[in-house]
Amino acid sequence: MTRALAARIRTLMRELRLSPLAAMLLASLAALDVAALAFALLAWIGLDESAPPATSDWRPPSVLSSASGPAPLAREDAQTLSRPIFWKSRRPRPAVAKSDRDGFAGIPTAPAGLAVSAIVRSGGAVRAFVVSGDDPEGRWLTPGESVQGWTVAEVGELELKLVNGVQSARLQLYPEQSQ
User: Fold this and answer.
1) pLDDT (tens digit per residue) in 83-114
2) Looking at beta carbons, which pairs linking 117-125 to residues 24 or more positions away fall under 8 Å?
3) Coil, strand or helix: which one is 39?
């Protein structure tokens, strides 16, 4: 019987002018169609619904673990404080003494012990984060506010302009780039 079927298939291939490769491709597509039909029937009929669904004891991880305790305060995080976010090279800032003016090369009127760590513009508002000898943790200043007797006159893109009576000074965000 198989020889008769093979002879029929060869005759059909000759009548349709199919090459052996095209015939194998059509046979594989027919097998794929049969498999897809079987899958669709199985999905429609369904599996044994009387079997209980498999349960898992997996739980999503908790964001805050009670074993780790509360998160430390930001001012206690030595790793973050040693590499300030807004510092260009992200290395620790060299300590600036009150009498040390070397960090402000080319700016003879720069106040001792003041350094600009960040400048932020948001909409029309602008502010600068200034670290001073009096306030080593630093604070945000806007134009018109004072620090160590100096008043912030203007906050530029990369510098802070300060005035103290007739004296004026500018602090650069990246003093190592000064000319």
Assistant:
1) 666 666 655 555 554 444 444 344 445 677 88
2) 117/84, 117/86, 117/87, 117/93, 117/173, 118/84, 118/85, 118/86, 118/173, 119/155, 119/156, 119/157, 119/158, 119/160, 119/173
3) helix
Q: Is this prediction's pTM over 0.85?
A: no
Could you read off the pLDDT of 120-140 as tens digits, one per residue? 888 888 999 988 887 888 889
Q: What is the 3-state secondary structure (H, E, C) of 76-105?
A: HCHHHHHCCCCCCCCCCCCCCCCCCCHHHC
Query: Could you tell me how many helices (H) and strands (E) the chain has, helices first?
Result: 3, 7
CB 83 within 8 A of CB 144: no
Buried b vs exposed e over 6-18: b needs ≥16 C-beta within 10 Å?
A: eeeeeeeeeeeee
From CA 117, how far away is CA 124, in angstroms rounded? Answer: 20
